[in-house]
Design a protein that fits this description.
Layout: H1 6-21, H2 33-42, H3 62-82, H4 88-92, H5 97-112
Helix pairs in contact: 1-2, 1-5, 3-5
């Protein structure tokens, strides 16, 4: 697979790993939620157009684009509901956060062939 923007792809993979592993009431790592949202949404504009438009530049297939969309749907809904200034734990304890975590883990595994490392409790 040829990707025109491998550094941007690396940021997306890191964002997915972060979203898959963040836990409420845990110390805030770096990169954290803010960086993950920035890389996944702000840098890509995937809140304004389909990730499928970036096949060949950031993503390698329709399956990857679909996996990103599955992550973005609950994440965007939570961001819209809580707004941009809520505390990280407000997002992480939202009733739909488990959807973000599961979809991000699935997308991460699809894009890397590896499961995102789970934090130690």
């Amino acid at each position: 697979m040829t990707i025109a923007w491998p550094d941007r792809r690396a940021d997306i993979i890191t964002a997915l790993a972060v979203l898959a592993t963040l836990r409420p009431h845990a110390p805030t790592p770096w990169p954290g939620l803010t960086e993950a949202v920035h890389w996944l949404i702000d840098d890509t504009f995937w809140d304004q157009h389909s990730p499928a438009r970036d096949i060949g530049t950031i993503l390698g297939s329709v399956k990857e684009a679909d996996a990103i969309t599955a992550t973005l749907e609950p994440l965007s809904a939570i961001l819209h509901e809580l707004g941009p200034t809520a505390a990280d734990d407000d997002y992480l304890t939202h009733p739909r956060w488990h959807e973000v975590t599961r979809a991000a883990a699935d997308a991460h595994q699809l894009m890397t062939g590896q499961r995102a490392a789970q934090p130690k409790d």
